[in-house]
Amino acid sequence: MKEKDLNSIPSKGTKVVRxxxxxxxxxxxxxxxxxxxxxxxxxxxxxxxxxxxKYAAQMVEQENGFVEKNIETYYQKKEETPYENNGTFYATxxxxxxxxxxxxxxxxxxSIDFSGKTDKANNKAEQxxxxxxxDNVTLPMIYxxxxxxxxxxxxxxxxxxxxIENNNLKELxxxxxxDSSDIPDKIEFSQEMQTLEYTxxxxxxxxxxxxxxxxxxxxxxxxxxxxNEDGTNQYTLTLQxxxxxxxxxxxxxxxxxxxxxxxxxxxxxxxxxxxQVTDPIDKNDIENLISSLEKSEASEGQFTISAIQKNSKLQxxxxxxxxxxxxxNKQEAEDSLDYNIEASILQNxxxxxxxxxxxxxxxxxxxxxxxxxxxxxxxxxxNSDTNETMxxxxxxxxxxxxxxxxxxxxxxxxxxxILNDYDAEPLQNFITALGQxxxxxxxxxxxxxxxxxxxPMIFMLPLPMLTGAMITNQAQDVVQNxxxxxxxxxxxxxxxxxxxxxxxxxxxxxxxxxxxxxxxxSETDSADxxxxxxxxxxxxxxxxxxxxxxxxSYIMNNExxxxxxxxxxxxxxxxxxxxxxxxxEQ
Length: 586
What we know:
Elements: H1 3-7, H2 14-37, H3 48-57, H4 69-80, E1 83-95, H5 101-109, E2 111-119, E3 124-132, E4 138-146, E5 149-153, E6 161-165, H6 169-175, H7 189-193, H8 200-217, E7 223-227, E8 233-240, H9 241-256, H10 259-271, H11 283-295, E9 302-310, E10 313-320, E11 324-332, E12 336-347, E13 350-362, E14 370-383, E15 388-402, E16 416-418, H12 424-449, H13 468-478, H14 486-497, E17 501-504, H15 505-524, E18 532-535, H16 543-546, E19 560-567, E20 573-579
Parallel strand pairs: 6-16, 18-20
Antiparallel strand pairs: 1-2, 1-15, 2-3, 3-4, 4-5, 5-6, 7-8, 8-9, 9-10, 10-11, 11-12, 12-13, 13-14, 14-15, 17-19, 19-20
């Protein structure tokens, strides 16, 4: 459909967006099931339509599918068997803008190394992680997980693990002054996904329901077959945009009468604890989507979907149109397996952007020394006039060795600071101090590195900075040559910004204490860093209230207050304004 037609579809907000996403996911599952239903036919007696569906079905077939059985076995073994591992993660930015060369080089020098051990069956793991900014600037830390406890430790912060228990998370959020309405007491994502799984009997019933829809909407003349020069056989479905719209509408109408699938969607959206969806999906949501599609006008054009096979095994799925080319490819060797997904966005026949994902596995046949490597990349023609391009490539490599057992020391009160166990006020004070310590560590390491732009990890993200000019602008936003350079200003401000907005009294008290400590330091180091406190409506001008912590007596722990900041001409916070009900009688 045309972009303007899509924009005309009425919206119900977050609820409809999430429901539509789930509907699309279920439709994909349904279509995969239909393809699988036709798989038993032999090639000799199949039409082009049947052959297309047979090899498209291999995308999800368990025995002869696009995803090899040994890959499934490998992932299942990781779930059931202890293993040791070591690996690395890094990002590579490429671009032809000289303005961003220093930033790009620093990002490309950054990497994360990790090694450890995992036993998912017994719910425990440990990883030694090192952030490498350069050969001389590193930040080592340890991640540990035992039972419901998850902790991180670094000697630069504490000898103990800073730990969260995966229980009573809603209460923990409330102690931190956060809105807990969308936070579960415990995160158990995998259990929720099980509500979407079909039993064998349900799968057969659902396939029967939608088979007639496909047979009605897809005509034999829309399918072609051909033999390619490389010995592969290609089966292609060609659809006009209007035909594709009609197919989706027909499937959605069938979904309205599919009590099995609707029941699963309702259960998932109504009872989910990790993914919060306010209202469960119902038939009215599907009806609204159908109505929107039927009213929209499909643009002129067509796209093709091709299934390419060799030796009766699917090798490639291609989708091609005027705006998008998509390829999903598999390559096999003696002891390695590669999967490649690539999408190109086109405009007037010219590639504007390219997104790709690759997964490589070696050592799968022996299930020892298994090397798994994943890469994800985005490339964009950011300026057609200058042909400026930017590319972001992310690499994750890991080597797995399965073992009989592993030992991981339990996270306990003796070796951990368990955040859930603390009351609101000491917890908030600790989080504030922890945040400030992290800022201090980062400031020191960036000075050693000679990097003025906050942290190279900031520039690893492809959005919103897809162009060299955008990276330069972001860097300039971080660094200015004022009385206090922008890096220091940003670091300074960030330590207070967590308190901005509507806060409980306990958080406001933590802010007052932090400002008091900052002002004590400023009296000897730099008066420019002093922060004034205004208690809106109060007329006290005593320095202990304006610059110190005497105002703590005004604040009631369980009351709500509004915190706003003012800034000096260089952009540094120089005043905190606290509004609300104050306690004036002691």
